[in-house]
Amino acid sequence: MASLWEIAIKSRDGRLEAPEDLDRRVEAIPNLAILPVRTAHAWRVRGLPTLHRDPFDHLLIAQALCENMTLITRDRWIARYDVSILGQSVSNA
């Protein structure tokens, strides 16, 4: 859910192009489990170091930590956190 929320905001602000029906496309993916934002996820953000200022990344990191999950990203900033990452840190984001 956090990723779709970020895409919606960046799309609205003209920083990212996304299909108008992306929400329906995501819901139509078979066997996709949507991870809701839980209170524990939001609260876990407060314990993260402020290595950068992207609140969406902070939430994704907190969710991965709380749920013992691996993040798939190329974002080099996320790789600086103590979280399991799948992907290479090659982005300048």
SSE inventory with pairings:
Elements: H1 2-12, H2 22-27, H3 39-44, H4 55-67, E1 71-72, E2 85-86
Q: Which features does this protein show?
A:
mainly alpha; single chain; two-stranded parallel ribbon; 93 residues; 2 domains; 4 helices
Description:
The chain is mainly α and 93 residues long. It has two domains: 34 residues, no CATH class; 58 residues, no CATH class. Helix content is 39%, strand content 4%. The chain is built from four helices and two strands, in the order ααααββ.
Structure, briefly:
This protein has 2 domains: 1-34, no CATH class; 36-93, no CATH class.
The counted number of beta strands is 2
Percent strand equals: under 5%
> How much is the radius of gyration in Å?
14 Å
Helix proportion range: 25-40%
Q: Overall 3D geometry?
A: globular
Task: Summarize the main sheet.
Answer: 2 strands, parallel
Give the low-pLDDT segments.
none
Distance between the termini: 20 Å
Give average pLDDT, whole number.
92
Could you state the order of secondary-structure elements as H and E? HHHHEE
SS-based class: mainly alpha
Give the total of domains: 2
Strand line-up in the sheet with most strands? 1-2
Number of helices: 4
